[in-house]
Design brief:
The protein is an all-alpha fold. Helix content is 48%, strand content 0%.
């Protein structure tokens, strides 16, 4: 009986484009067709200096956040690692193989330095969610949250009447009930 030789191919050239390697029915293709990401640039124009070292494209940073949330990665560090290895994510971000994906610290420092003290981040994120919902790419039947349950440090004498989106209020009662039950089980104050 003849033995078959095991063949292992790890190095070589891929004679294909990124576009040719990403399946037509992949979620990132749906995202790319339904969201016009150029809306981000006017929002962040004042946050970037025209001089100095070139910065990371802000659209890439927000696309990375979408990948993080939509594909269920538990950290931005893992998201960056997955984007580095996954052809579809690279295609979505517009980053060719020969370029590096932004490091997780680059993402977090951009968030801290540029978006932390403003409402621009939330405005952009809300706009993306609105576009996703308009194209029926959001499933609003389940709400996930992290396991951190902290009481708000809010001043009851200073408040603003704000109209809240129905989407965000839809599950508030159930979520607060679950949080309070969990706090009671763990002996924490309500």
């Amino acid at each position: 009986m003849a033995m078959t030789r095991h063949f292992c191919f790890r190095e070589g050239f891929i004679l294909n484009s990124l576009d040719g390697l990403v399946p037509q029915d992949h979620l990132v293709r749906k995202l790319d067709t339904c969201i016009d990401w150029d809306f981000i640039y006017p929002y962040v124009a004042d946050l970037y200096s025209p001089v100095g070292r070139p910065s990371i494209d802000p659209v890439i940073l927000f696309k990375m956040l979408c990948i993080n949330i939509l594909f269920g990665f538990n950290s931005m560090r893992r998201t960056c690692r997955e984007c580095d290895m996954n052809v579809a994510y690279r295609w979505f971000l517009g980053i060719p193989f020969e370029e590096k994906v932004p490091n997780y610290s680059t993402w977090s420092q951009n968030y801290i330095r540029r978006y932390h003290d403003s409402s621009i981040f939330e405005t952009i994120f809300d706009h993306v969610l609105d576009q996703l919902q308009a194209h029926r790419l959001l499933d609003l039947t389940t709400v996930f949250g992290d396991s951190t349950h902290q009481k708000a440090s809010a001043n009851k004498n200073k408040y603003q009447n704000v109209e809240v989106d129905v989407v965000r209020k839809a599950y508030e009662f159930e979520l607060l009930k679950e949080i309070n039950e969990d706090r009671r089980e763990h002996g924490k104050s309500l």
